[in-house]
Amino acid sequence: MFDLFFQYEFLRNAFLAGIIIGFLAPVLGVFIVVRRMALVTDALSHITLTGIAFHLLLSQSAVFLQAINPLYMGMAFSVGGSILMEKLRHVYKHYQEIAVPIIMSSGIGLGVVFISLADGFNNDLFNYLFGSVLAVTPTDLTAITAVLVVVVILLVLFYKELLFLAFDEEQAKVSGIPNKWLNFLFIVMTALVIASSMRIVGILLVSALVTLPVAAAIQLSKSFKQMFIYSIIIGEISVISGLVSAFYLNVAPGGMIVLIALGILLLVIGGRKAGGMGVRKLRGRKTLEWRKA
What we know:
By secondary structure, the protein is an all-alpha fold.
């Protein structure tokens, strides 16, 4: 079954990109879920769509843009939106959650305007919205690999600080950790992962790949490190199984990946007699977990 995936270059690209995304999305998803920032992924995915639609619109009049991958414009918009979101969180200090709907609604509004101003790229947008095995190009794979290298390096360097911020931002600030700078760094990393994931999962479904494996891992984990491991395993199973089944069923891979991740989550929840025990254990350890990591 997997022989075909290594026989053709476009399938190899999709498979390798899927493995990378299956690692990156759950890894950052652990921090995102613990920090209760799940909606941030939706906001950044919509901003990414805006950047891609803007690129496709401009490329109709600027021919040189047709040779440039729209993914880069999507990444630029996603990073810009993440920076603006972090700025808004400081503007609305007592209502920080309002920054998310502001960015999300702005992204949707701009995206709709850009799409309505141009015709002729509906097929391209469909691939970006729901993912495509055929659409992953060598330049996409290069960009995704670059994001992997950057994110892994930053996580290795700042793992304990990001972990402390995830569990108790106020205490981290008192302890002297530069929370503003690290929050900025984390939101930019999230933006890059969201933008790079949309080729495989699709913009509308990428938040599911970030959160569903983590939701399942929470039910299985007894520690924060275990939650990382289970999240990555479930993410990889979902992506690889989703890509293979989508190819043979001739459907969008994003939907299959999400359905498999959802199926795993339901099996995990249904298989546990004491649902939520993992959550309670993690909450009980959270004040000390960052020191042991």
